[in-house]
Amino acid sequence: MDYINAFWVGGVICALVQILMEKTKMLPGRIMVLLVCTGALLGAVAIYPPFVEFAGAGASVPLLGFGNTLFKGVKEAVDEFGFIGIFMGGFKASAVGISAALVFGYLASLLFDPKMKK
């Protein structure tokens, strides 16, 4: 049942974002920022953690989950280091995911033939 919940929750999130992209004139970069900020806000008001418990990767993998991860990292760092934790918590919490994205993106560029758009 965990896999089914992850599948349909992730699908609903992606479908809602696709509708947002098609029905508004917002640029994709702004939509991504909106999703990350929404995830952080939902984490701050304690709505997103139970959602992640229910849906697992279906809720933690999309950009909403990334925003929630950034919020959790900042919250933990502020509790531990005080004010300076605002600046270091997000980096510490998301370093593995960002590093993996860079490494796998580089490996994919070695396997395939990337070209610049004209």
TrEMBL record:
<dbReference type="Pfam" id="PF03862">
    <property type="entry name" value="SpoVAC_SpoVAEB"/>
</dbReference>
<protein>
    <submittedName>
        <fullName>SpoVA/SpoVAEb family sporulation membrane protein</fullName>
    </submittedName>
</protein>
<dbReference type="InterPro" id="IPR005562">
    <property type="entry name" value="SpoVA"/>
</dbReference>
<feature type="transmembrane region" description="Helical">
    <location>
        <begin position="81"/>
        <end position="112"/>
    </location>
</feature>
<keyword id="KW-1133">Transmembrane helix</keyword>
<keyword id="KW-0472">Membrane</keyword>
<feature type="transmembrane region" description="Helical">
    <location>
        <begin position="33"/>
        <end position="51"/>
    </location>
</feature>
<feature type="transmembrane region" description="Helical">
    <location>
        <begin position="6"/>
        <end position="21"/>
    </location>
</feature>
<keyword id="KW-0812">Transmembrane</keyword>
